[in-house]
Amino acid sequence: MSLELLDKAIRRVPDFPKPGILFYDITGILVNPDAFKFCIDQMASIYKDAQVDAIAAVESRGFLFAAPLAECLKKPLVLIRKKGKLPGDTYQCSYSLEYGTATVEVHKADVKKGYKYIVIDDLIATGGTLLAAKNLIEQGGGEVTDFFGVIGLPGLNYRKVLSPCNVTTLIDYDGE
Prior knowledge:
By secondary structure, the protein is of the alpha/beta class. It contains 6 helices and 9 strands, in the order αββααβαββββαβαβ. The protein has helices spanning about 5-10, 25-30, 35-45, 60-75, 130-140, 160; strands at about 10-15, 20-25, 55-60, 75-80, 90-95, 100-105, 115-125, 145-150, 165-170. It has a 7-stranded mixed β-sheet, sandwiched between helices. α3 crosses α4 (about 60-75). The longest helix is centred in the N-terminal third of the chain and has 15 residues, at about 35-45. The protein is globular and about 40 Å long. The protein starts with a helix and ends with a strand.
């Protein structure tokens, strides 16, 4: 498997979720076992020696990539969910979207003071959701050292937003 084959597995959906947006759909990766394995193997290789204590994943597509990585690295998996989806005491963070606001939460019991975290999502666009995830972890006394996305849209300047943390993507698109 190569980045060229990964690129072919990613579906492009024009005008979704609204006109003028080109949506990069990772479900094409999930239905292609070789493409999915390539992603997980690459992530495991990138982070095999990382000095982190846990993996955090952003709902919902981030879960799909973070869970196998957490298992490979033998690290706990912490779920960052949309507001109202977690039953216990939570930390919350609201953030702006281009078409409104959203709130994410994490169980207070799942974030450990002094732990270092990698935060995983399927796609990194503006970085707003990941910055909110970082805020949640910091509320619990944790530290985010790295962000990972299978796909990156660097033209939206997410690296500046997420600085000084490391940001890694497998494949980038600069607008098509």
